[in-house]
User: Which sequence fits this backbone?
């Protein structure tokens, strides 16, 4: 929570919006990412670079949702923080670390797919398990290093005779926090954002050109069109989930530091920022759905699991499905 001694801050909406949305994200994110991890870790015999990236992405999203329960309780209690200073720092730290890890792993996945679509020959040499492990380890190290200052800035404090856990820092330290907030916006968000958008736009351009000027049978054309729709959905999801949140957060920081006396503007940007916070959280629920339903690797895993479930009831149907899948290369 952040508050002002000068301006009255409107925050009644947070008692309903944030607890309800965070609870929904917690339940969906826990179930979907848990299922994705189970599917990858327990049902994968030969690990590929795609499986490595997806496992790390699911772990980051899962750790993100596990940081939500204390925030749900605190927001439901009107921002009262009953858990102490150490848990306050830990929750803020893990919240932001795993949010930034999620963005970086999405960037890694986009580069991985970009190489496969745009540079298929070079992809054979570059899309290796060793490189995927190195990239994944680097993401965790970089994200942790980026968010380490949060352990200093985030702490508990007393506002209006109530103990709160500051989301960013003490209001008196906002001028010190502001450069760090800009650093997170540029390095932690803008860089992965440009990577993701550039890769997916390049892939869509290549697939569109192949569809427009290449010769292919109807089945190949359908697969290519489906890939275009999937890439568009992933790119749009990334933009919707992350861009408004980081823009409103940066504007909010700017107003807090440079225009603290404009109470109306302060309330507008604060409400905008708080409204977009749940949206960025829903990204950890959308990732498993997009990769299960949208990409070949996810569909293959999901089809195999459904096949095993169906086999218990209709063995012959499962045999037909497996045969058709094998013949179609799915």
Assistant:
């Amino acid at each position: 929570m952040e508050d002002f001694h000068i301006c009255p801050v409107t925050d009644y909406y947070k008692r309903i919006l944030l607890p309800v949305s965070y609870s929904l994200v917690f339940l969906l994110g826990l179930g979907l990412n848990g299922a994705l991890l189970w599917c990858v870790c327990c049902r994968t015999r030969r690990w590929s670079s795609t499986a490595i990236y997806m496992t790390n992405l699911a772990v980051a999203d899962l750790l993100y949702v596990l940081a939500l329960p204390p925030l749900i309780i605190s927001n439901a209690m009107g921002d009262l923080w009953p858990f102490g200073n150490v848990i306050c720092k830990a929750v803020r730290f893990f919240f932001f670390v795993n949010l930034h890890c999620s963005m970086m792993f999405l960037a890694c996945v986009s580069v991985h797919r970009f190489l496969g679509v745009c540079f298929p020959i070079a992809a054979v040499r570059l899309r290796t398990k060793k490189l995927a492990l190195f990239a994944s380890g680097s993401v965790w190290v970089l994200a942790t290093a980026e968010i380490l200052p949060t352990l200093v800035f985030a702490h508990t404090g007393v506002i209006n005779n109530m103990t709160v856990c500051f989301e960013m820092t003490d209001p008196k330290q906002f001028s010190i926090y502001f450069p760090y907030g800009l650093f997170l916006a540029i390095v932690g968000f803008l860089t992965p954002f440009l990577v993701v958008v550039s890769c997916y736009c390049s892939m869509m351009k290549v697939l569109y050109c192949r569809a427009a000027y290449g010769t292919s049978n109807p089945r190949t054309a359908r697969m290519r069109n489906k890939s275009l729709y999937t890439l568009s959905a992933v790119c749009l999801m990334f933009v919707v989930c992350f861009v408004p949140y980081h823009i409103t957060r940066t504007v909010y920081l700017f107003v807090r530091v440079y225009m603290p006396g404009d109470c109306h503007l302060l309330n507008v940007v604060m409400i905008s920022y708080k409204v977009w916070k749940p949206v960025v959280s829903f990204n950890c629920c959308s990732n498993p759905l997009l990769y299960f339903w949208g990409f070949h690797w996810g569909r293959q895993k999901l089809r195999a699991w459904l096949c095993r479930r169906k086999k218990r009831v209709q063995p012959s149907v499962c045999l037909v499905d497996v045969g058709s899948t094998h013949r179609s290369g799915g």
Q: What stands out?
A: The chain has one domain: 14-296.
